[in-house]
Amino acid sequence: MTPPLIIAVPKGRILAEAVPLLQRAGIEPEAAFSDEDSRALRFATSNPGIDLIRVRAFDVATFVAHGAAQLGIVGSDVLAEFDYSELYAPVDLGIGHCRLSVAEPAALAATDDPRGWSHVRIATKYPHITRAHFEARGVQAECVKLNGAMELAPLLGLAPRIVDLVSSGRTLKENGLVEVEVIAEVTSRLIVNRAAFKTRTEVVPLVEAFRRAVDQTRAA
Ligand SMILES: Nc1ncnc2c1ncn2[C@@H]1O[C@H](COP(=O)(O)OP(=O)(O)OP(=O)(O)O)[C@@H](O)[C@H]1O
Ligand SMILES: O=P(O)(O)OC[C@H]1O[C@H](OP(=O)(O)OP(=O)(O)O)[C@H](O)[C@@H]1O
């Protein structure tokens, strides 16, 4: 018997927005999937041919790229950071809207001129995107890799600037930082393992179901 398809979904903020999309695509997760207190990692759905796994956002891309999961939901920030050739990202799901930006203390921004930078030291979870962004205009970026709470870095002298996700801007504001450049707009994408796309006949109709679910959400 063919094993179920596995869809990797990030725990955290994307999960709440992903559940209505999954439902619109005809996939009803078991109740524990939306329960942040559940310690389970793999979940059944109303479709016996589809299981869900709940993993960290950056790990969604890794599971799908290696074929351990056949599909996944992941931010375009994560996709750009890894740039896995094994991944195909056929649908913009229109959830998880935010932007990846350069930020610095308000006092520094008052006198700073980004056009004059030749070398910058940046605290970020996204060293690959950051280096590429600055290299494109001849600026060398020295990155200090952090996994969260980037906003603390300028306050504590780890790095004067950060590259992080911004949505409402509240986190920057509460830590005395201002946005000085937007690197990229971010939304979540449906990703598919390229080999699974070719070999598992259930994948194509499932991708189409997600596409319709996004259209329905937009029209609602
Ligand atoms: N403020 C935000 N507004 C909207 N979407 C966001 C925001 N922050 C992050 N995202 C999106 O959600 C994804 C997961 O972010 P989240 O903050 O939940 O991860 P995390 O808590 O840093 O993950 P982990 O704990 O697994 O390291 C990001 O990759 C991005 O695409
Ligand atoms: O502009 P805002 O609306 O304030 O959102 C931005 C914050 O959201 C994300 O963090 P998250 O809350 O997911 O926490 P974490 O990455 O530190 O886990 C991001 O890393 C920022 O810190």
UniProtKB/TrEMBL annotation:
Assigned keywords, A-Z: Amino-acid biosynthesis, ATP-binding, Cytoplasm, Glycosyltransferase, Histidine biosynthesis, Nucleotide-binding, Transferase
Entry superkingdom: Bacteria
PROSITE patterns: ATP_P_PHORIBOSYLTR
ATP phosphoribosyltransferase catalytic domain ranges (all copies): 56-209
Pathway connected to this protein: Amino-acid biosynthesis; L-histidine biosynthesis; L-histidine from 5-phospho-alpha-D-ribose 1-diphosphate: step 1/9
Location within or outside the cell: Cytoplasm
GO MF annotation terms: ATP binding; ATP phosphoribosyltransferase activity
GO cellular component: cytoplasm
Domain notes: Lacks the C-terminal regulatory region which is replaced by HisZ.
Quaternary context: Heteromultimer composed of HisG and HisZ subunits.
Family: Belongs to the ATP phosphoribosyltransferase family. Short subfamily.
Identification of the protein by name: ATP phosphoribosyltransferase
Organism lineage: Bacteria, Pseudomonadati, Pseudomonadota, Alphaproteobacteria, Sphingomonadales
